[in-house]
Fold this protein.
Amino acid sequence: MEATAEAKVAWRSCVTTSRQARSQEEEVARALAAELGVPFEPRRQSLDHWLAGGQYEAVLVVNREHLTLWVARAGRQPERLFFHPSTSVQRVKGLLRGGSDPMVRAMGLEPGMSVLDATVGVGSDAIVASFVVGPQGRVVGLESVRELAALTRWGMAHYQGPIPAVEEAMRRIEILHTDHGSFLAQAEAKSFDVIYFDPMFRDPVAQSAPMAPWRLLADPRPVTPEVIAQARRVARRRVVLKERKGSPVFEELGAQHVEGRRSGRVAYGIWEALP
Ligand SMILES: C[S@@+](CC[C@H](N)C(=O)[O-])C[C@H]1O[C@@H](n2cnc3c(N)ncnc32)[C@H](O)[C@@H]1O
């Protein structure tokens, strides 16, 4: 997906249940539809009917404690997305063993800090940040695509895994459906210690395979110099942006330093907060 200024971020979607839904699931699905401002559809049709028929571009399915997002794909089977903490589990395990994490180093994160993850996506980076800042800190994640924000918010609230520290870190994260440009323009100066951006890479070849279905709906817009200037106003300490190592984006946005493991594929651009 090319980065473009006229990116589509509003999709035609609905919420439904599995075919064998009990009344409790239907209630949850209806409440989710109302919260998102999209129709609730009783599950009398196959998902294909809605997706291949073109009525909806995305369908959220409530099935017991799971939320699944089905996305239409022209001429192909619909793609299924569900929440998974992805690399955060391994990264938190590494930190628990006393290891270090390049994102945490670039952010200069310490317990008690507040972090605004301005492109939260599936939330792996936010989970690691939440683990490091701990219960005295705060992590807020912004996602401009309503259906992706819903999936991540659901995952943060419901996901159960083998590592209690990961689950605890997830439960503390607040997910907001909003565009980071609008959020930052209205935010108070110096209201978060660190502001973090991990936009969709300009070069999709560098994207990992698990992100592939996510890209169908994700907001591909690049971070602009205006957004970085706002973020520096809202940050108390620093602004950090992740991109592919060697990306021209760091220079275009005037990063003050760029950090990254010599062997790694990604790097972190850093701007200090405005005085
Ligand atoms: C590469 S993903 C982030 C992955 C995330 N760091 C993680 O660890 O899972 C980028 C996400 O930012 C979202 N996004 C892009 N532009 C945005 C904007 N202007 N405001 C809020 N979210 C945005 C995209 O929809 C996408 O879900």
Observations:
- The domain at 13-82 is CATH 3.40.50.10480 (Rossmann fold).
